[in-house]
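Cross-posted from the bioinformatics board.
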Amino acid sequence: MYSPLITQLIESFRVLPGVGPKSAQRMAYYLLEQNRSGGHTLAKVLEEALEKVTHCEQCRNLSEETICGICTSTSRNSEELCIVESPSDVVAIEQSGIFRGKYFVLMGHLSPIDGIGPEEIGLNELDTRLSQEGVVELIIATNPTVEGEATAHYIQQMVSERNIKVTRLAQGIPIGGELEYIDSGTLSQAFISRKEV
Amino acid sequence: MYSPLITQLIESFRVLPGVGPKSAQRMAYYLLEQNRSGGHTLAKVLEEALEKVTHCEQCRNLSEETICGICTSTSRNSEELCIVESPSDVVAIEQSGIFRGKYFVLMGHLSPIDGIGPEEIGLNELDTRLSQEGVVELIIATNPTVEGEATAHYIQQMVSERNIKVTRLAQGIPIGGELEYIDSGTLSQAFISRKEV
């Protein structure tokens, strides 16, 4: 049905998240039939990115520079440090535009069952960084999952002896959400943390 | 937000059909964070496919071989030739398993406004092939669109002087379809072509 090389190409596209057999076929044929230059660019840039992109030595975010753009930026507030699980979390927060401090990316969360302890998520580096830099507030923005909460709790304990304000993101009703569709856990949290207006 | 190389990688993924900014970001981060070997394979296979895959000299389908697997196959009936617009049409027909003849892939359809005439869709090659091979039936399976119909009509005229049976795929109600949701054109066609049982 497909030639061997086209079969291989379709299989290779299938490793991408959200790409099933039909989409993979469409991608392969699209590049081969209609956009060979786009395909060459993709292959070249992908190879280059895989070779050069590693982790920023300061915040552990993905970057091809030793120290990433956010860490070297002088217009950002070094007194606020936001801890997130993954690079996509940094993107989401940057897109909101609300935060002008710096980041620390755990690249995961604590998960003893998978052998992921404090060292694997860079808590040693975080500790060193907190000793050296004048961080005033540590915003723990791990995911509101069991693992994310456990990781947040661990970090909170770790820094408890330092004179640093530790905060977590507020939990409650998302903007634009409808009460009837919000899970009871979130709704309870919204009641507990209700604010006087 | 992204490092320059990651921005480039996300942009490169966006050329793929059905991939928006969010999916492209997810693909880039997935390969960089979780599956670098899959990424290397994709880059390598893509580059190789773009370099080697051209058209089968006989049926014009995409293939890295001079003559593709279907054309060289001895178990297929050379007396039946099915004309389709694109390689994905070959895949769809092969998946149905109903056809054991050979193909001719136009790689498009007649579209004078875009400068696509008979030569561009390989009708010269088709003519030569019909003169040399003992084709008994020509099944025209172009798309049921205005351009597909026009192309089918042109081919029909072209071969009208040869002693070849020309057929088109039946039009009617798709299996599993519901009458109330079928467009009136299709429904009219199904009435006109009704069969005695």
